Amino acid sequence: MNKILIALTILGLCAAANFKCTAEMKTAKFCTREYMPVCGVKMTEKGSSKYSSIKTTYANKCTACVEEGVEFYAVGSCEEYPKEANFCHPEAHLDLACTREFFPTCGLFDDSITCTQGPCGSNFSNKCMACINEHVSYFLTGFCHHQEQYQQ
Ligand SMILES: *[C@@H]1O[C@H](CO)[C@@H](O)[C@H](O)[C@H]1NC(C)=O
Question: The pTM is what?
C-alpha cells in the first residue's frame, strides 16, 4: 500500500506536459530512424528558462535531444501546434511562486485533459501562472478565444 502511494507521489511530481532531455539522451551515440515526431525546444540565450518558442520538428525524441541546445520536447511535430506557441519547460511547474502581474495568457493543456472539440485551454493571469500548471503544454499571448484562436 505504502509503495503504491509513494509511486503515485513520484509520478505526480514528475508529471509535466512536456519532456526534458536527460543528460543520457543528450549524449546518445546513435538514434534509430523511427518516425515518432516531437517538437524540440531550445531556450533563448538570455531569456527565461521557463518557456520558449524556439522550436523545430525532429523525427523522434532521440534526434531532438542530441541536437545542440534542445532542452525539452513536446509530443508530436511542431506543425501540430500554433506558430506562436510558447512551450512550458517541464520543470516550470516546480516553481513555488509567480508574480501577480496581469498579462492575460491562454494556457493550452496536454492530452491528460480532453475537450470535445480541439485543444483545451484556460485563461491565466500571466505566463508563469500558466506554466506552473503541470498540465499546460504551451501558451499563447492574450485571452483564450476558443473559436478563433485554436479550433481547427
Ligand atoms: C478567456 O477570457 C475571455 C475574455 O474574458 C473569454 O471570452 C473566454 O471565453 C475565456 N476563455 C476560457 C477558455 O475561459
Answer: 0.83
